[in-house]
Amino acid sequence: MSSSAVVWDSALLAYNFGSDHPFNPVRLDLTVRLATALGVLQDVPLLVPDPVQAEELYRAHTAEYVEAVKQAPMAGWDVGYGLGTPDNPVFTDMHEASSLVVGSTLLGARCIAEGKARRAVNIAGGLHHAMRDRASGFCVYNDCVVAISWLLDHGFDRIAYIDTDVHHGDGVQAAFYGDPRVLTVSLHQHPFTLFPGTGYSGEIGEGEAEGRAVNIPLPPQTGDAGWLRAFHAVVPSVLAAFRPQLLVTQCGVDSHEEDPLADLSLTVDGHRAIYRTLRELADTHAEGRWLAVGGGGYQLIRVVPRSWTHLLATVLDRDVDPRTPLPRAWTEQVLAMAPGAEVPTSMTESSDGAEPVFSRWGDGSGDPVDSAVRDTRRAVFPMYGLDPDDPRD
Known about the structure:
Helices cover 34% and strands 11% of the residues.
């Protein structure tokens, strides 16, 4: 059994709302080019996905909505179902391109379920906003929901979904809000200040699934130290209590301080620390089973390629020294595509490449994220037999 699988094919670049849209597939192309230039993908067979059939899409979407997506390119602008809007403009072969994204995440899930790999990564996935009957937030079909639903039918009954995108993982939460088999955890910018306006700490699931939705809304300008502080104050304890068989993680990088669409203040080094932590948690709580997908990220040159190259490297156990200079050939490719662009020089944003330092919750430091952490812990910890006010839990 291979330890890790990477799903990629250039056909995934067809999920393209247009050159002026923030969700530009060039970010994927530049990531794969950088990871290749650094040797991260050397001798790694890239798994080529196929589009999923409609029956698999019905796991996440209504038949009426799937048909609307198929017909949208012929119907024109503003066809309903969230399609034809500035966020989700219609493009040629929208159904086919979107189905391929779903197929790429489902391929990673199949590799893990069939024992072909312990880990799988698909940077083209992570379309976490798509709802059952509509497109939302640059997301047409929800690959995360389809993959989790498929896994629930193929040997798994405790799946933890962790969303580190700057936006709340609303589509995935909505799909499993009443399903006790799925734990959804989302750390995101506070919904008062950012799309989609959901993800409050009081959103905890319903019925038998109360406590299965965990939300940590963070104040704008939260940086590496605060973000990691909040994560470690909540996520490891809940995972230990839930005992997942597999981790699915949405690894959007729009939490970066340079991202044009949001207001958190993480760095590439913070993203690298997140991925290393997720790998450790998968090893500790899920026998190493880890399906990682991409997500948001709109600083196309300086952030996404470096952060997701670190993601690929982490999944493959080929961690890149953050002090590594960026290959000259890659820099030249970027400048040929975007003359005058400000291109980073190394895989870190710190002077020495060290991981961010953060204080633990409950140490009395008075960090501004403490109230968000406290609200979340008090909302869900008692349901797992944990003391929300005891920092040891």
